[in-house]
Design a protein that fits this description.
Layout (H helix, E strand, L loop, with lengths): L2 E5 L4 H17 L2 E8 L5 H15 L8 E7 L2 H11 L4 E6 L12 H9 L4 E5 L10 E6 L9 H11 L2 E8 L4 H20 L4 E7 L4 H11 L4 E5 L11 H11 L4 E4 L10
Parallel strand pairs: 1-2, 1-4, 2-3, 4-5, 6-7, 6-9, 7-8, 9-10
Antiparallel strand pairs: 5-10
Helix pairs in contact: 3-4, 7-8
């Protein structure tokens, strides 16, 4: 059975990641596995005792699913992605910022490497996210590349489980009429796909005056969004924005959970 994995390190952020992952797993009816990546020669005994204590404390929240854990040793991103392959994971959930506790492994580049290397979507959440709010609105940025639509199946899966409304955000990264026409076309095709999936949606197109990330986040904050779904590859090959700067800016600046999707791992959306 496919699973949802949670990168866990006893930090406040990763504990919140577990809480959200439980809600998602219950709705998708997928088992959970916590993954702790220990340092070389680190004693497993207190790690296992603490994980089991915490798991017992949330066991009452599980609805027809199991939550297990595994302790691995090595490079954090490599071990988490390898476990995801072994479990045929459908999603990896990790907490970001404010890391503390037994290890600081999740700080810095490890989160980015996990996103870049994982063969399934990766959901990153900050510890200051409002977990008391339902997942009501999901933002899906749409640019002028054909790959941009491939994040739709992941957004649809969340929307169907939570009854969310998807907001298609067409991004005009150029004044070129041809590029704007492509964005308009992809937004229209994406809307038709969502309608076929019986998912509520709205669509709008905006110009990007300076920064792609800022424009996306300003829109998400304006509609009080609860998730943004982006690609792990370059969002627009005809602009100066690349994966590294866009993805890292989104992860750094967004207080809203970011779901990152690898395009080559998804079925293309048909016109």
């Amino acid at each position: 059975m496919s699973k949802i994995l949670v990168g866990f390190d006893f930090s406040k952020g990763s504990a919140y990641a577990v809480d959200l992952a439980i809600d998602i797993a219950n709705r998708m009816q997928l088992d959970l596995r916590l993954v702790y990546v220990k340092e070389k020669d680190e004693d497993e005994t207190p790690i296992r005792a603490e994980i089991e204590r915490r798991n017992a404390g949330v066991a009452h929240l599980l609805k027809g699913i199991k939550m297990e854990y595994v302790i691995r040793e090595g490079k954090v991103s490599d071990e988490l992605c390898q476990q995801a392959k072994e479990d045929a994971a459908q999603l990896i959930v990790v907490g970001t910022h404010g890391m503390s506790g037994f290890t600081k492994n999740w700080i810095g580049r490890n989160t980015y490497r996990t996103i870049a290397e994982a063969h399934c979507p990766v959901l990153t959440i900050r510890e200051d996210f409002n977990f008391n709010k339902a997942l009501e609105r999901i933002v899906v940025p749409i640019d002028n590349t054909s790959e941009t639509r491939q994040k739709l199946p992941t957004a649809v899966k969340f929307a169907q489980c939570f009854g969310s409304e998807i907001h298609l955000l067409g991004l005009y990264t150029s004044e070129s009429p041809d590029i704007r026409s492509m964005v308009n076309g992809y937004v229209k095709v994406s809307g038709a796909y969502l309608a076929k999936q019986e998912v509520k949606y709205k669509s709008t197109c905006v110009s990007v005056p300076k920064n792609l990330t800022v424009t996306t986040l300003e829109y998400a904050e304006k509609i009080n969004a609860d998730m943004i779904v982006i690609m792990t590859e370059q969002e627009s090959s005809l602009t100066s924005f690349i994966l590294g700067s866009y993805a890292e800016q989104m992860l750094t600046l967004s207080t809203i959970p970011i779901c990152s999707v690898r395009p080559e791992e998804l079925f293309k959306v048909s016109k």
